[in-house]
Specification:
This protein is of the alpha+beta class. Helix 1 runs antiparallel to helix 2, helix 4 crosses helix 7 and helix 5 runs parallel beside helix 6. It is globular. It has a seven-stranded mixed sheet, with helices on both faces. Helices cover 32% and strands 27% of the residues. The longest helix is centred in the first third of the chain and has 17 residues. It has seven helices and 13 strands. It has two domains: 130 residues, 2-Layer Sandwich (Fructose-1,6-Bisphosphatase, Chain A, domain 1); 101 residues, D-Maltodextrin-Binding Protein, domain 2 (3-Layer(aba) Sandwich), CATH 3.40.190.
Length: 241
């Protein structure tokens, strides 16, 4: 485990201890998105820890640095990915952070406290609770998969020609982590919110996933075949608006 991953692991676990059952929820925008006080508190805590250890690194994060750009040396932070789930007391939410160093992602952590599952990766591979994980080799028609971001209905209909085993967990971090752990066959994320996809894409890649990293098309899949099917059919199209 490299030092960046050791740092991320410690910080994310400590951050999770800030969460209690007593939280405040409010609307983030007029589209139904929500935010809680813990989104802010966790992100603030992680930022402060990063500034102590890596003061020269930039930060791209959902609540306080959402306009930031990925740089050669930076961290991405999603304090609670799946806030709507969290606010409704569904367990499918995570804290996820990644470190980019010299232009390459070198460490990432996705922590699902309600499941006691800690997904992490560095150059040595991907792990779940310190046990190495890899993608599965199921054929496309037998794979579970997820389409995330924007209007998903047209994409889901197109995908049904290849597999009807669609799942919608409402949390990008869990989707990518499940590809890495051999639970999902593929995930496509279709927004430019770096904190949502950078950690999971790296963990999935280190678990052997085939990756497509293009604007509004962030795919991790158990095979090149499935990744290309997702790109062709699940990517957001202008007519999907």
């Amino acid at each position: 485990m490299n030092k960046e991953l050791e740092f991320l692991k410690r910080v994310v676990i400590e951050a999770s201890k800030l969460i209690t059952e007593d939280f405040e929820v409010r609307a983030k925008d007029d589209k139904g998105d929500l935010v809680t006080n813990f989104d802010y508190e966790i992100e603030k805590f992680i930022i402060e820890e990063i500034k102590k250890e890596y003061p020269e690194f930039d930060i791209v994060s959902e609540e306080f640095n959402s306009n930031g750009k990925l740089t050669k040396n930076c961290f991405t932070i999603d304090p609670i990915d799946g806030t709507i789930n969290f606010a409704n007391k569904l367990p499918e939410w995570v804290i996820q952070v990644a470190c980019i160093k010299n232009g390459e992602t070198v460490a990432a952590v996705i922590y699902a406290p309600k499941f006691n599952e800690l997904f992490l990766a560095d150059e040595s591979g991907a792990y779940l609770n310190d046990k190495k994980i890899t993608v599965h080799n199921l054929p496309v028609k037998k794979c579970l998969y997820e389409v995330l971001g924007k209007n998903r209905i047209p994409a889901n209909k197109r995908m049904f020609a290849f597999s009807r085993h669609l799942r919608n967990l409402g949390c990008a971090g869990i989707g990518y982590a499940y590809v890495a752990a051999g639970r999902f066959g593929g995930v496509i994320f279709r927004n430019e919110t770096h904190w949502d996809y950078v950690p999971g894409m790296y963990i999935a890649k280190q678990a052997g996933a085939y990756i497509i990293n293009e604007k509004e098309c962030y795919i991790a899949a158990n095979s090149q075949e499935f990744a290309e099917i997702l790109k062709e059919n699940a990517v957001f199209r202008p007519e999907d608006k």
